[in-house]
Write a structure and sequence with these properties.
flat, 22 helices, 5 domains, 657 residues, 4-stranded antiparallel β-sheet, Alpha-Beta Plaits, alpha+beta
């Protein structure tokens, strides 16, 4: 339940060993690679590495060839790939060339088959035309036109039967068109073309051929069959080739991908200008140090060192959160606002517990809560893989728990009365209106409002204590002692609330002069002078304000803001009690409408009302609970300025984009 402890790993060695070092470190998900030049800002003798990646060309070439051939490469480990770099380059050239050759042949044959098929489509309509095409096209004194007419236009041809220069040969027909041929002497062809054009003639270009259209069609059909056979042979050769090379090709691609990614990470390393020495630095989780030590010991020509984060205070370690499974979904809410600093407390457990409780109280209904959990788990998490789905599923379960306490099932306020009656018989626990907490009772409403404010006060005080712990951990003792969220703020806020509670509700006269002076006035004065007091504790010589007037004027307005924030933070928790009443009120409206409709409409109204309220109120409660978390609680001890831990493989993927 904390930020994972990190170790700084620095590696120095010959540039020839850089690739093995990167391969060793980056193969683990537990290595965060830092920019090495950040360690040598004031040392010009170190330069970044910006060499051109030699693996990119061959990876892209082989990848493109495989994709063009529409083959799929399954991920294969390359640990047993017994090939050196020259052999890999030769393999890429030969394999990509072979696949490209197959693809070219396949493309050419496909084009020929398509052309042949189109020609056959033209000839099939003129198979009844029993004249040799090659002889017709050689005629010097007549012109021949192939095409089709709409059926209604074909019937009008009889009007031109007395034209001696127009000879027509119908060949085939369907429901709409008649295909055929007409001929005319060269000197009369324009006149005849105009006649047919007026009848909506569509001319078709017939490919050059020998023999009759039927003979040409048969010849093309045979040619198309030969081409299809050749295409099948090519496909078989491709499949056979791929079946033989698939595994090795996958290993080569994996090797190239891995080494390309590692080589891209060279830009994070530094090189000494006057020799072939590299420097690499990164962060490793403390519990992974032995694993990395074992791996690095197998490499020659390098020196490495692990240092604790405290030993290098000038460098900020990345942040990785480590929480139990039940708390882990709520990291989503924390990351919405940023990660904690490395030396800050991880607020996830605090957020998980408090958000779970607050959501359940404000959305208390057994039936609606269980439905919300089921929908969130199945649709948001299992189907959509939304991280929010896990949080909502847990919160729905919390709603069901508090719904049991308030005795509400899909808005039916008396559904659990038999259960609570049985509990009363067994334990003697007092009931109100047949349930443990009756939100419809006026006295209970007042109690709920006070309880909501009480919950808020307790949570704010806990958040202040967590801030004191965090600031002490960061050695910021001034903030821990004197700030409005430090020890002074805790004493002032707690004493004020406790004093008012005792005076107004318990009848205990706590607000005496010594009590007010020691526990309210003095802490408030300390908060007023928190800035100079913090500087004094930090050991600064010039801690006293230079301009007293400006200091007093500025801090007076700041104190007004501080006091108002205490009030607003406390009153803000009224929404917890308000939402309990809102839920009961909205369900009362639903049942009132249902009773007015009656019959089947009663149940339709109840179901639709539950669906609408579950969606609307679930969204509102989720937002309001999150607002309480951030503004009233964990923002008191949380800055959200930490940088995320990114494994080298994640960095490589980002570089690809």
């Amino acid at each position: 339940m904390a930020v994972v402890k990190m170790k700084l790993l620095s590696v120095i060695g010959s540039i020839d060993q850089l690739d093995p070092v990167l391969d060793t470190c980056c193969s683990s998900e537990n290595f965060h690679l830092d920019q090495a030049m950040s360690f040598f800002k004031d040392k010009p003798e170190f330069i970044p590495l910006n060499d051109e990646n030699p693996y990119t060309l061959y990876l892209n070439k082989l990848n493109d060839a495989v994709k063009l051939a529409r083959f799929k490469v399954e991920p294969v480990q390359d640990s047993d790939l017994l090939m050196n770099w020259d052999e890999i380059k030769d393999y890429v050239e030969s394999t990509s060339s072979k696949l490209a050759g197959f693809q070219d042949e396949k493309f050419n044959l496909t084009q020929e088959i398509e052309s042949c098929t189109n020609s056959m489509e033209q000839f099939k309509h003129f198979q009844g035309f029993d004249m040799k095409l090659d002889e017709i096209f050689k005629c010097e004194f007549i012109k021949v036109r192939f095409g089709r007419l709409p059926k209604e236009s074909y019937e009008k041809l009889s009007m031109y039967s007395d034209n001696p220069y127009m000879v027509t040969f119908p060949c085939a027909s369907d429901d709409k068109y008649v295909w055929g041929v007409y001929m005319a002497p060269i000197e009369n062809i324009r006149e005849v073309d105009q006649i047919f054009s007026s009848l909506y003639w569509e001319r078709l270009r017939i490919p050059d051929a020998v023999g009759t259209p039927e003979e040409a069609y048969n010849a093309l059909s045979e040619q198309c069959g030969d081409l299809s056979s050749k295409l099948s042979d090519i496909k078989k050769q491709m499949d056979d080739f791929w079946a033989e090379e698939q595994v090795r090709c996958g290993k080569v691609l994996n090797y190239l991908e891995r080494h390309k990614n590692n080589f891209d990470l060279r830009k994070y390393t530094a090189k000494y200008q006057h020799s072939r020495i590299f420097f690499l630095a990164g962060w490793v989780p403390e519990d992974s140090q032995d694993e990395f030590t074992e791996k690095l010991e197998k490499l020659n020509g390098i020196e490495y060192k692990f240092e604790g984060a405290d030993e290098e205070p000038s460098y900020t370690p990345p942040v990785r959160l480590k929480n139990p499974g039940i708390f882990r979904p709520f990291e989503f809410f924390v990351k919405m606002y940023g990660l904690p600093n490395y030396d800050e407390m991880d607020p996830t457990p605090f957020v998980a517990i408090t958000y779970f409780i607050l959501f359940g109280i404000m959305f208390a209904d057994v039936g609606q809560g269980l439905c919300l959990s089921l929908i969130a788990w199945l649709f948001m998490w299992k189907m959509k893989k939304m991280e929010l789905g896990k949080c909502v599923a847990l919160c729905g379960f919390s709603s069901a728990i508090f719904g049991l306490i308030f005795g509400s099932v899909f808005g039916f306020e008396e559904a659990l009365n038999p259960f609570w009656g049985w509990v009363h018989q067994k334990t003697g626990i007092p009931l109100n209106g047949g349930k443990l907490i009756n939100v419809n009772d006026a006295d209970t409403v007042i109690t709920l409002i006070y309880a909501a404010i009480g919950i808020g006060v307790v949570l704010v005080l806990v958040a202040m204590l967590l801030n004191v712990y965090t600031k002490c951990k960061q050695h910021k003792y001034g903030d821990a002692l004197f700030s409005q969220n430090g020890l002074a703020g805790f004493i002032f806020y707690g004493a004020t609330i406790f004093g008012l509670l005792g005076q107004m509700f318990l009848g205990i006269p706590l607000l005496t002069v010594p009590y007010v002076v020691c526990l309210i006035v003095i802490p408030l004065v300390v908060i007023f002078f928190s800035e100079p007091l913090s500087e004094l504790v930090a050991g600064k010589k010039e801690w006293f304000p230079k301009n007293i007037g400006d200091f007093l004027m500025q801090n007076i307005f700041e104190m007004i803001e501080v006091l108002l924030s205490y009030v607003s933070n406390t009153v803000s928790f009224l929404r917890v009690g308000a939402f309990i009443l809102v839920h009961a009120g909205m369900m009362t409206v639903v049942f009132t409408l249902a009773e007015m409709i009656g019959g089947v409409g009663y149940w339709i109204t109840v179901v639709l009302g539950n669906v609408i309220i579950m969606a609307l109120e679930g969204l509102l409660v989720g937002i309001q609970a999150l607002r309480l978390e951030f503004y009233e609680m964990f923002s008191r001890f949380f800055t959200g300025e930490g940088r995320p831990f990114k494994s080298a493989s994640m960095v490589a993927q980002e570089l690809k984009k």
